[in-house]
Amino acid sequence: MELKKSPDGGWGWVIVFVSFLTQFLCYGSPLAVGVLYIEWLDAFGEGKGKTAWVGSLASGVGLLASPVCSLCVSSFGARPVTIFSGFMVAGGLMLSSFAPNIYFLFFSYGIVVGLGCGLLYTATVTITCQYFDSRRGLALGLISTGSSVGLFIYAALQRMLIEFYGLDGCLLIVGALALNILACGSLMRPLQSSHCPLPEKTPLENVPDKYSIYNEKEKNLEENINILDKSFCGEEKCKNIIANGDWKQESLLHKNPTTVSHTKEPETYKKKVAEQTYFCKQLAKRKWQLYKNYCGETLTLFKNKVFSALFIAILLFDIGGFPPSLLMEDVARSSNVKEEEFIMPLISIIGIMTAVGKLLLGILADFKWINTLYLYVATYIIMGLALCAIPFAKTYVTLAILSGIIGFLTGNWSIFPYVTTKTVGIEKLAHAYGILMFFAGLGNSLGPPIVGWFYDWTQTYDIAFYFSGFCVLLGGFVLLLAALPLWDTCTKQLPKPAPTTFLYKVASNV
User: Which has the minimum average pLDDT: 295-299, 310-314, 482-486, 504-508?
Assistant: First the structure.
């Protein structure tokens, strides 16, 4: 199915708006889980490392499943995936209100909500990239601010709901709000030519020769018929037994007329079975060829040194950069910061500054004179230094300043799809982005528990944040070394896939 040229406007702005709302509704609670984290610590009495798994799974599982999420979006389209995922997020949040222990939350909040968020994120990013080309950086920046605004609002909203309705009531209300994702998904119209007819199923005779080992259909049919002949070698013996048998056998034959018709037309039956066998063999060979090409494309992606550096950098960035958004409230409490000094929750500061960072960095990415990859590397280096400075912050003001810096630099998520597109090309965006998000999810899942375990071990967050800052700095320098020789290595697109390769396409209207 051929897609229209990216309109860079028109209905694309509707896509931006509903994608913004989708990320706001699905990521608001998981990103502001730091408010719930403190409540779960008091409610279940588990260690900080174990309790941190709930929030880390909610952010990491969806990213870990990104290759599957990309495949779902490519196969079914953004609209049905968004509607289905809306049910998952809302159901997982409501189910979490009935959690009897921390292990139940691992499933309901960590896995169900996390997987739903991963599907929604992939759907919104993919359809936005299809609708925009020259303004892609701005569009991605706008939709990605949805999660940051959600973090800012949900941090205060969940705290207020807990005060009025308790932890269980808070999760039920937040889950009900997530049902609005269904309305957003209904507006995600696929980018597809209106006059383009639906693709017809490929006839058996038109299956390309490269999908099969045998190129001649007649040869396959003859071989299958010969095999079937062995199954019918006793047919004449069966007829003789029936002819010479007693009245019971004759009556049995009359009661089963299908046997008579079968014996009268053995050749027709064998031919039909042979054709069905041939079709199954061809289908299996075709599927195997598609999977083989998919693996081949994956290996080709990793031959690009910038792409290989990206997956290392994003893994290290999420191990070190994600914990502050989950644990900053507990960091302030561990530093003996009084609640009266809190002008605004630290998580809310991170959220609003992340929104500002995503928007500004997205706008900067559209300027031709700015090297987007170097801009992305700069956010890593400054972020690593800010994380290393957290152990020296002992007052609310210093923690708030560092939270703002970290939040702004976390906004580099808005230019990450832009960098990925420049590296591998728009044709392979869904494929490459799914792989990179898998490693990002691995980092999200491991980061907060590691920091929590460091605290359980040392009773302080100092060593934990030194470790986090080192991880982010290392990821930035690895990516910088890969990008230093020539930026042109990123802008060179890989060869366009052949028609028989594993392609990602937008599903038809539903």
Answer: 504-508
| Token pair for 132 | 């925009």
Q: Position of tokens 């990925």?
A: 420
Cα atoms in the 13 Å half-sphere on the side-chain side of 304: 27
Residue by residue, what is the 3-state secondary structure of 422-471? HHHCHHHHHHHHHHHHHHHHHHHHHHHHHHHHHHHHHCCCHHHHHHHHHH
Q: Which range among 164-168, 206-210, 215-219 has the greatest average pLDDT?
A: 164-168
Summarize pLDDT for 54-75 with one digit per residue, the tens: 888 887 787 777 777 777 887 8
Of 114, 102, 152, give the one whose Cα is nearest residue 26.
Answer: 114
Closest CA to 15 of 175, 115, 136: 136
What are φ and ψ of residue 494, in 5° steps? -70, 155
Distance separating alpha carbons of residues 397 and 399, to the nearest angstrom: 5
- What pLDDT, in 10s, does the model give residues 472-483? 999 989 888 887
| Alpha-carbon distances of 311 from 317, 321, 410, rounded to whole Å | 10, 15, 17
CA distance 375 to 230: 70
| Cβ–Cβ under 8 Å, residues 356 and 141 | no
Q: How far is CA 233 from CA 237, 242, 265, 269, 508, in A?
A: 8, 16, 15, 14, 50
Of 333, 463, 326, the closest CA to residue 390 belongs to 463
Query: What is the spatial distance between Cα 442 and Cα 60, in angstroms, rounded to a whole number?
Result: 6
